[in-house]
Write the structure tokens for this entry.
Amino acid sequence: MGEIEMGVSLDALFGDLANHPSRRSGAIDEAVMVALIERGVSKGVQLAEFFAVSGAAVSKKLKRLQKFVDRSVATSKAGTQLLEVKLLSGERLVALAEQAQKLLDLCGLVVFAPNEYAPEVIEAKNRLRRLVGAKGSVGQMAVALLGESRKQLEFVHEIQKDVFNLKRVQEFQEVVLEEIKAASPEVQQRIMARLDRQQAFRETLDFSGSGAAPARQM
């Protein structure tokens, strides 16, 4: 059917996979299926023609692959969102540290200026006085700013470490997912089975305080 009606266009669509051993083998090679989909072979009838299997077999395999893809995308998305939050928090802390440093510069100008009557020194005094009030102490504010700046820099350092670790985890996940896609169907099925068992076990855990112990799976 497809070879007579669509043979030329399908061969062009299959590209370098047109002569792959899995073609018309009567069995679906999941790695080849993923490669075909990436090339734009998205219709079930086209995939069925390639492997010489039924449309139902293709549909079942696509659902299994989609389940794996959905889990992978969800994991990747969660990691990306957490990374974005960390980066945004780091940017905000850096902005606060810069503001604190500007105030410290004003304090330093007032405290260490050789000429306290210089226009810039007087302007700095007026600005600081508006901040600390009539009875406030510029020196105390400077000490407080130094302590706050130190804390913020420590937070920024911790966030930078977290961002670095998150990026390493994402890179690791990408490599693992690529290798899983390239693995044999048997290996993919074992991995999926283990992930499903792990998820099922987690769903049996009761954190609501009901006291019901989860059934132990053998």
Observations:
- The first helix runs from residue 2 to 14.
- Residues 1-53 form one domain.
- The helical segments are 2-14, 30-38, 44-51, 55-112, 119-132, 138-182, 185-204.
- The chain has two domains: 1-53, 66-204.
